[in-house]
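The data are quoted verbatim for completeness:
=====
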Amino acid sequence: MSIIHPPQTLRCGDTWEFSGPLTDNSGNPLTLAGATLTWKIDSLDQSENFLTVVSGFGITVTNFTTATIQYLATATQTAAIPPGTYYDTMHVLLADGVTGFTVIEGIINASPIPT
């Protein structure tokens, strides 16, 4: 079951950093050993993907027991995102290579870099 996060207002050109536990439909921590995590930031109509971050390249499991992760986009990455409203999704593909689902999603409002 996906958790829809509250709308986030972030500034382009800043580091966007998030963390939290990933759980199954029953609220139990997911088994993240060997899993692949993918975080995407897409235009609202999904006509364009502006950023994709994957395990080991912006996504880190900080606690396997609680399935807690930290994920971020660097200031350089967010500087390349035009100001606007986006939809982000965190997808997990478990180690079996078959079981996959979206675990976190929601709106991000990206404000322009201050001048």
Observations:
- The radius of gyration is 14 Å.
- The chain has a mean pLDDT of 94.
